Amino acid sequence: MRHNNMAYWCSHNIIPYWLFLIQTYLLLLLVAGSKPGQKIPAVIVFGDSSVDSGNNNFIPTIARSNFMPYGRDFFGGFPTGRFCNGRLPPDFISEAVGLKPLVPAYLDPAYNISDFSYGVCFASAGTGFDNATSNVLGVIPLWKEVEFYKEYQKKLRDYLGDEKAQVIISEALYLVSIGTNDFLENYYSSPEKQKQLTVSQYEDFLIGLAWNFVKDLYFLGARKISLAGLPPMGCLPLQRATNIMQDHACAEDKNSVAREFNMKLITLVANLNNYFPGLQLVYSDAYTVFLDIITSPSKYGFEVANYGCCGTGRFEMSFLCNKHNPFTCPDANKYVFWDAFHPSEKTDQIISYNLLKTSLAKFV
Questions:
Q1: Which of the four pLDDT bands, split at 50, 70 and 90, describes residue 29?
Q2: Spatial CA neighbour of 137 closest among 205, 83, 78, 96
Q3: Rounded distance, CA 334 to CA 3, Å?
Q4: Which candidate, 319, 346, 340, places its Cα nearest to that of 4?
């Protein structure tokens, strides 16, 4: 059974329930009482499988999740292409700021510009900052996501007129979540690349690409942008499953790289805000809360944190996570991870509300 939003918010049993209720009520009042000029008119999403709401369904790639048991806890209980048993962070954030409870995929023909005027997702599972990352699974590169955004802007202007469209473009909240695949699917999977670049040098290369990406969004009119850091990628079940020498503990070398890269992102955010007038770029720290969930799962109501719900939970994702696998758990709310790579819906929701109270608070 799906938990309601209030149940998810009660993630920390270290605080009294009455205090949690007051905090939730105050946040809802803040969102509902926002001035018209501060209201977020749309949520616009770029990135990878952490935020892809189904674009990969419509391109020739094996990086898909448009089949059961993916989506079994989604509205109506059907797969959408989200790499989760339910909704993703952009969906929860959109709902929390007073918009629709789902952010649709741009390539999904079931939606049109009237839907996209409130929110749109250009993300593609398996992609990264590095074009070479998108080539691994033949998915949409980040530059193409930007091209889709340009196309979207034209449709939006045709639909609403220049003035109203410009308000949406400039006042929308832009959510960017990308980078994990650059390391796990690209750098660490390529001995040749590791010979050419140290991991620190590769981080710097990605930071340069991130600068150019934010610059492109800025000159296209975006102003309110959230740039998410890497998660504790050494604690993903797939990484733990292969960490045999350390008894399947979190791979600290991967977590160390994630922390190092995130520190560079923080510096990048400060530099970009200083460089581009009017830019409101924030660094969204998903690492800290995610690691806390993984290391103290019972505090958040979870029972299992070292492997996912789907299949054996250690290696399966995408087509290996399917309805024919007999090992899939009956209740994903007990699991931090849905498959060997992606968080469960409950984890996504906890992280989303944490970001709304921290990095995104200035926008809501």
A1: very low
A2: 83
A3: 11
A4: 346
CATH number of the domain enclosing 97: 3.40.50.1110
* pLDDT tens digits, 233-291: 999 998 998 878 777 899 999 999 999 999 999 999 999 999 999 999 999 999 999 99
Domain region containing 66: 5-363
Catalytic residue numbers, as ranges: 49, 339, 342
The answer for 161, left when phi > 0, alpha when psi is -120 to 50, beta otherwise, is left
Dihedral angle sign, alpha carbons of residues 161, 163, 45, 98: negative
Q: Which residue has the tokens 């918009």?
A: 99
Spell 253-268 as b/e; 16+ CB within 10 A means b. Answer: ebbebbbebbebbeeb
Residue-wise pLDDT for 296-337, tens only, equals 999 999 999 999 999 776 766 777 788 877 789 999 999 999
CA distance 49 to 190: 21
DSSP state of 187: G
Phi, psi of 133 (to 5 degrees): -70, -45
The residue with tokens 């959109």 is: 94
Nearest residue to 344 (alpha-carbon basis) of 86, 3, 125: 86
- Answer yes or no: are the C-beta atoms of 127 and 121 closer than 8 Å: no
The pLDDT score that the predictor gives to residue 313 is: 64
pLDDT digits (tens, 9 = 90+) for 126-183: 999 999 999 999 999 999 999 999 999 999 999 999 999 999 999 999 999 999 999 9
Domain count, the chain: 1
